[in-house]
Amino acid sequence: MKFVKESSVKGVCITTATLNLSKLNSDENLELHTLDHALVLLEGRMTAPELLTAAHGLAHLAANLINHLSKVCGPCEDCDKDSCPFNDLEEEVVQVNEYLREAAGIPDGAKLCAEVDEEAHTVTIMAAEHRYDLRDLPPDLLATFAEAGTCLGKLEEHMIAEDIVYGG
Ligand SMILES: [Zn+2]
Q: Which of 5, 96, 139, 156 has the most C-beta neighbours closer than 10 Å?
């Protein structure tokens, strides 16, 4: 079940009733796992069936989150080339050697993009203004979205914009 917790300066309080609902025994030690953007409270001691039930629940939650994002992006069906910029990730990779990157003052790990001047026959490589794009998705996760028919162009737009895709 999902509960919305109001956080305050004192932090977040989890009531005994909520612990009981999760079959967490408050007499025993609980393990708090801090993830980025999530916290997981695990029972400190579990039997094999209990551990598997917990693992299954976590996998289910992860799948729901991915599914939510897939729905937000919508299916890729009526996309034309303008609204769906995603074509081939490999073709979009821009690379420059370390010496040139350092000389240009571009930090290591910054995303690069290229601008072409067809008349002057020049290519300008610069640091991209965005922090995230599809290249930040692990390949298996990207494949999951692709197999689900998710619009990868929309997904990339949300990665770049870093707008809110979950909650209001
Ligand atoms: Zn699309």
A: 156
Name residue 163's amino acid.
D
Please give the distance, rounded to the nearest whole angstrom, from the Cα atom of residue 87 to the centre of ligand 1.
Answer: 9
For the chain, residues with pLDDT lower than 50 are 88, 90
Distance 34 CA to ligand 1 centre (A): 34
Q: How far is the CA of 8 from the centre of ligand 1 (A)?
A: 40
Expressed in angstroms and rounded, the spacing between residue 163 Cα and the centre of ligand 1 is 18
Per-residue pLDDT reduced to its tens digit, 95-135? 888 898 899 898 888 888 888 888 999 988 888 888 898 88
| Cα 114 to ligand 1 centre (Å) | 23
Q: What is the pTM of this model?
A: 0.77
Q: Tell me if 25 sits within 8 A of 46, measured CB to CB.
A: no
